[in-house]
């Protein structure tokens, strides 16, 4: 029992970034009732659950069966509407998450990604749920940055 607790504490201590970067950590995590939505609410938790598999936990992306662009240092993150469009609607091999995520969640994960990987100060990196709702409304619009 004691060993298990020590292990748990060690694992917790090993991920200070998760704790520090999560401004919502102190708020209780409300749970969604429907099973097909993602329950995570904080940016770091959402990134880990939804984005890291393709873009890698450190945001450096990957090349293999497909090309997953690096988010680390990616200048396109500066364009919030473009990043919002990618997360909501997807593009080619990038899946859209608009149906699974609330605007709060989209804003949380993108604020986190822009601050952590886009090198922006927290205030500048912040994306609001209202901005997400705006882009959601105009889903037919083409992305601000062409590929
Ligand atoms: C299944 C793999 C996969 C997942 C999961 C995924 N992405 Fe992507 N992502 C991609 C691919 C592939 C692209 C390149 C798409 C293209 O060709 O335009 C991309 C592109 C992007 C871009 C645009 C980068 C650029 O240089 O244009 C952003 C921003 C982005 N993803 C953010 C996210 C975020 C945030 C999440 C989690 C909510 C996420 N992605 C989850 C595969 C993924």
UniProtKB/TrEMBL annotation:
<keyword id="KW-0249">Electron transport</keyword>
<feature type="signal peptide">
    <location>
        <begin position="1"/>
        <end position="21"/>
    </location>
</feature>
<protein>
    <submittedName>
        <fullName>Cytochrome c</fullName>
    </submittedName>
</protein>
<feature type="domain" description="Cytochrome c">
    <location>
        <begin position="38"/>
        <end position="117"/>
    </location>
</feature>
<dbReference type="Pfam" id="PF13442">
    <property type="entry name" value="Cytochrome_CBB3"/>
</dbReference>
<feature type="region of interest" description="Disordered">
    <location>
        <begin position="120"/>
        <end position="147"/>
    </location>
</feature>
<keyword id="KW-0408">Iron</keyword>
<keyword id="KW-0732">Signal</keyword>
<dbReference type="InterPro" id="IPR009056">
    <property type="entry name" value="Cyt_c-like_dom"/>
</dbReference>
<dbReference type="InterPro" id="IPR008168">
    <property type="entry name" value="Cyt_C_IC"/>
</dbReference>
<dbReference type="InterPro" id="IPR036909">
    <property type="entry name" value="Cyt_c-like_dom_sf"/>
</dbReference>
<keyword id="KW-0349">Heme</keyword>
<keyword id="KW-0479">Metal-binding</keyword>
<dbReference type="InterPro" id="IPR051459">
    <property type="entry name" value="Cytochrome_c-type_DH"/>
</dbReference>
<keyword id="KW-0813">Transport</keyword>
């Amino acid at each position: 029992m004691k060993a298990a607790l020590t292990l748990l504490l060690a694992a917790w201590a090993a991920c200070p970034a998760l704790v520090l970067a999560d401004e919502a950590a102190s708020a209780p995590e409300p749970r969604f009732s429907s099973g097909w939505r993602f329950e995570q609410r904080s940016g770091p938790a959402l990134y880990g659950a939804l984005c890291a598999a393709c873009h890698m936990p450190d945001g450096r992306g990957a090349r293999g069966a497909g090309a997953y662009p690096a988010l680390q240092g990616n200048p396109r993150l500066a364009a919030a509407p473009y990043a919002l469009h990618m997360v909501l609607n997807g593009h080619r091999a990038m899946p859209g998450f608009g149906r699974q995520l609330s605007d709060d969640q989209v804003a949380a994960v993108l604020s986190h990604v822009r601050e952590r990987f886009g090198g922006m100060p927290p205030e500048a990196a912040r994306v609001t749920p209202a901005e997400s709702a705006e882009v959601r409304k105009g889903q037919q619009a083409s992305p601000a940055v062409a590929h």
